[in-house]
Design goal:
2 domains, 11 helices, elongated, single chain, 7 strands, alpha+beta, Heat Shock Protein 90, about 10% strand
């Protein structure tokens, strides 16, 4: 409740300030010309009517006539204003009788009897309606200016996004062309090294074979086609982790799990590889009590990929950034608003990523 009140006061702080200054001005003028200070209850009584008329005229009458597409409402505005003034005077007069008779104990039944007093009663609502009309057109002009600025900003963002997409396409095409630089030579060389070492150094030979499979997949047309079966991406990660394990004496504390429902799903390639590389680069994987985890599930037509790892305090490699931003861009280009990618570091120094895609 306090928060709502604070937000309301903050939002309309200039309204409160201007009305306060206006009421103080009127009280001062009355004091100068009559020598009397108006009672606080009378100030509240009359300004409640005046301020209500101000906002009703601007936010209801003018809004629903001038902003309307109906020509009939626009042409009937003068007639509606006359009705508004008549209703204002009638309601105020009825409330004045009640207020002054039962609260102030003053008889004002003859206050509207002469022409001069009647003119004063009509002039007052016309006065505030004039200010209200100016306020309405001021706010209308401001809204139109904001709308133009928002449209220009949106157009600029669309141009920037279009350029980014074109740049992304060029980079992808260049990367694909680079990958075509005699990949057969690389694969055949790795196969030769595997054959030469499988008897003398079987562990090294298995690592070479895993590397050959990884390179063959990464350089394949399938991996550059846009979407692949997630099962192939999972197999790639398993081989990548085996290759990583072969280079280290201590086994990495990393759990990799998935459910069968996720295997046949088409997904953009090499996203899992980027997430895995981030874990291996930035994670502390030598503590079995703080294992990293990669988990893939598909349930209720939602593909969910989550990772978590304890951040290494000894890591000197620059932190996550470009790779994760590229994942976010690729997910947006491939799936639009049906995909989300979030990542954060929690208070226990665990880095989390979450991908969700509506299948």
């Amino acid at each position: 409740m306090k928060d709502h009140l604070f937000n309301f006061l903050h939002k309309y702080k200039y309204h409160f300030l201007i009305w306060s200054l206006y009421i103080a001005y009127e009280v001062l003028i009355i004091k100068l010309f009559t020598g009397k200070i108006t009672a606080i209850e009378i100030i509240i009584f009359y300004n409640t009517f005046n301020i209500s008329l101000f906002y009703i005229h601007a936010n209801i009458l003018l809004k629903y006539t001038l902003d309307s597409r109906s020509k009939l409402l626009k042409f009937s505005l003068v007639f509606l204003v006359l009705i508004e003034i008549a209703l204002f005077i009638s309601i105020k007069y009825g409330c004045e009788i009640i207020f002054f008779t039962y609260v102030q104990h003053i008889d004002i039944s003859k206050a509207y009897a002469n022409f001069t007093e009647l003119v004063k009663q009509v002039w007052r609502p016309v006065y505030f309606i004039g200010f209200s009309t100016g306020y309405y057109f001021l706010m209308r002009t401001r809204r139109q200016s904001q709308l133009v600025e928002e449209m220009e900003q949106q157009e600029l963002e669309n141009v920037i996004q279009e350029k980014e997409i074109k740049n992304e396409l060029v980079l992808t095409q260049n990367a694909f062309l680079r990958s075509q630089i005699n990949p057969d030579f690389l694969i055949k060389t790795l196969s030769y090294l595997y054959d030469e070492t499988r008897e003398s150094a079987p562990k090294a030979a298995e690592s070479i074979l895993s590397l050959s499979d990884i390179m063959q997949y990464a350089l394949s047309k399938e991996a550059s086609s846009g979407f692949v079966e997630l099962e192939k991406e999972i197999n790639l990660i398993e081989k990548f982790l085996l290759l990583h394990q072969a280079r280290h004496v201590q086994r990495a504390a990393l759990k990799f799990s998935y459910n069968n429902a996720s295997l046949s799903i088409s997904f953009i390639p090499l996203v899992l590889m980027t997430l895995t590389e981030n874990i291996l680069k930035h994670g502390q994987l030598d503590d079995p009590q703080k294992p990293a985890e990669i988990k893939i599930t598909c349930k209720n037509s939602i593909l969910r990929i989550t990772t978590s790892n304890y951040e290494s305090s000894k890591n000197q490699i620059p932190s996550h950034g470009i790779g994760l931003k590229n994942i976010k861009k690729r997910l947006y280009l491939a799936y639009g608003e049906t995909a989300s990618f979030n990542y954060y570091l929690d208070s226990k120094k665990y880095f989390h990523t979450t991908i969700e895609v509506q299948i």
